[in-house]
Amino acid sequence: MEKQGPVKNGAEPCPATDRVSLLNCIDLSSSDIHQSVSLLKQACLDCGFFYVINHGISQEFMDEVFGMSKRFFELPLNEKMKLLRNEKHRGYTPVLDELLDPDNQVHVGDYKEGYYIGVEVPEGDPEAEKPFYGPNVWPAPDVLPGWRDTMERFHREALEVAKAVARIIALALDLEVDFFDKPEMLGEPIATLRLLHYEGQVSDPVKGIYGAGAHSDFGLVTLLATDDVLGLQICKDKDAKPQTWEYVAPVKGSFIVNLGDMLERWSNCIFK
Fold first, then answer.
1. CA-CA distance, 233 to 132, in Å (whole number)?
2. How many other C-beta atoms can be found within 10 angstroms of the C-beta atom of residue 269?
3. Backbone CA torsion sign across 167, 264, 185, 176
4. pLDDT tens across 197-208, in order?
5. Are the beta carbons of 113 and 217 closer than 8 angstroms?
6. DSSP strand pairing (49-53 vs 25-27)
7. Which residues contact 180 (CB under 8 A, 6 or more apart)?
8. pTM value?
9. Which one of 84, 108, 200, 226 has the largest count of C-beta atoms within 10 Å of its C-beta?
10. DSSP at 252
11. Do residues 171 and 271 touch, judged by C-beta distance below 8 A?
12. CA-to-CA distance for 74 and 126, rounded, in angstroms?
């Protein structure tokens, strides 16, 4: 389970009383697959969070993606609202639009804005009739030149990283290495790229204010690329009373990976 509490620039990012989690690090360039499987399996049994490094996406391109994301969120609100999220979960979500932890965020949403991009399926294609499939919503080229090309490329490259991680997960579950590559799995995925911008409101649990409230993701896996601002917290045991929340330190160029509810269920709740 995770939550996000953004920190204002210049504020103390991590008080001494807060814990910083130590997570296993999976090197996708390593030739020692047995070590990779062992490290990943340990992480999945322990908490369901780990880092992925040397994943094949260049730092230069990662910087470009973050720069393009920043350019979008700096647009005037009236321009962003023209791209409001549709029924296919494509497009812009404004600040306070989502509420991830209603028990603790009473009458207040998440202090973040986002943008959903999915697998591109043209209007009129029979596949577009499925939930979560269809054409994406894009800013006009004259508003953000090159933006669509960058995000479509990042979607493709990040999906390849997810598939590489899924192959190691398959081995950790004693399955064939290509189990998740099958057409009914990641061969035809509901893969969503989501850009997120936290506007700087410091979390205040007493007032129910969070960048993103406590939640677990509902899919197979999430790959999270972050900037250098500390804010993400995880709870390794959601049933503990009281819960212990730990910061996850940003590692430049890495993805923070967390398992989703679906994979937990598919593993008969062995993986968290």
1. 28
2. 8
3. positive
4. 998 777 787 888
5. no
6. parallel
7. 163, 166, 167, 169, 170, 186, 220
8. 0.90
9. 226
10. T
11. no
12. 36
